[in-house]
Amino acid sequence: MVIKMKDLSQEFSQTLAKRHWGKKYQELTQQALHDKDVQTFIQQNQTKITQPMLDNGVDAIYEFVQAKNNRKNFAIGYVPQLMVANQAIQVTYHPDKQLLSRQQQVQLAQKFMTIDMASDIRQANLRDYEQGDQGRQESYLAAVDFTIKYGSNPQEFVPGLYLSGELGVGKTYLLAAIAQTLVKMNTTVLLVHFPTFAVQMKAAIQDNSVLARIDKIKAVPILMLDDIGADSLSSWIRDEVLGVILQYRMQEKLPTFFSSNLSMDKLEKHLAINQRGDEEALKAARIMERIRFLSREVVVSGPNRRFK
Q1: What is the helix (H) or strand (E) element at residue 47, kind and residue range?
Q2: Exposure on the CB side of residue 110, measured as CA atoms within 13 A
Q3: Roughly how many angstroms between the first and final C-alpha of the chain, as a whole number?
């Protein structure tokens, strides 16, 4: 049978009277029955609640009220909710706003991966990027344009950006700001300080972890190589590490970003000279062919902001 709203309080009282609970517990349960949220739940579900459900639902209602009123001690981070399911009154628990916010921050941190980058880059935001002169406006618009195109169809290849410019003009900040925007779109990003990574790769030879490190980097959805061209590269790093990563990403059409103090043309000349001073123009050209496929060059201009 379906119990009418006007009969529910009486039915609850009768149910409590049938049970051999202590007087104090009965009083608490009666109070729970008259809780405002409980009454709202009853009113919303009056056509669903039957006598058997009522007989077995008093404990759930008492639990709900206790959990709601004592969340600091009972259900930290969760909000209790009454529901009718499987012919029974049940209590479910849902994350509150604070817990959801913390979980979201953890998820974002997991999607924004870094290798040897300053921790404060996670505070970067496109809204805070100083546009200033025309050159900075163009770099800002290029960043926004990429996020819009990529967000509209992640399956379609959109070349990343090759940010070139003088020291301290904000290239790394802009990369990090783009990364923050992308992770909020549920995209995994890896931002790597390339000179430090190159040193680590040399050390990885000792523990046979070279291939594992390359595999970790080459297949990430969005890869950002910061400060490429800052140091001289050995032929091995250029061809067997950087070349392998870029070749895979070109084949799989995975957007890749770069920042450098050198223009693309100057980077090619830089890569052509190995650490021994030998010129290897053809090998440098192969690397640049991949870089030009994976990204388009945007010049970031303006004063050195590191001294502001």
Answers
A1: none
A2: 7
A3: 75
Q: Which class for 86: exposed (0-12), middle (13-18), buried (19 or more C-beta within 10 A)?
A: exposed
- Helices and strands: H and E segment counts in the chain: 14, 8
Instruction: Return the structure tokens found at 40.
Output: 């709202």
Q: Mind giving me the DSSP string for 238-262?
A: IIIIIHHHHHHHHHHT--EEEEESS
Q: Which stretch of DSSP H or E encloses residue 237?
A: none
Give the pair of three-digit tokens for residue 47.
């056509």
Among 190, 186, 189, 232, residue whose Cα is nearest residue 213: 190
Q: Long-range contacts for 281-287 (Cβ within 8 Å, ≥24 apart)?
A: 283/235, 283/238, 283/239, 283/243, 284/238, 286/243, 287/238, 287/239, 287/242, 287/243, 287/246
Q: Is 174 exposed, middle or buried (0-12, 13-18, 19+ CB in 10 A)?
A: buried
Task: Record the pTM.
Answer: 0.67
| Amino acid of residue 48 | K
CA separation, residue 161 to residues 66, 242, 300 (Å): 55, 17, 11
What are 53-97's pLDDT values in tens digits?
Answer: 877 787 888 888 877 887 666 667 778 888 888 888 888 887 777
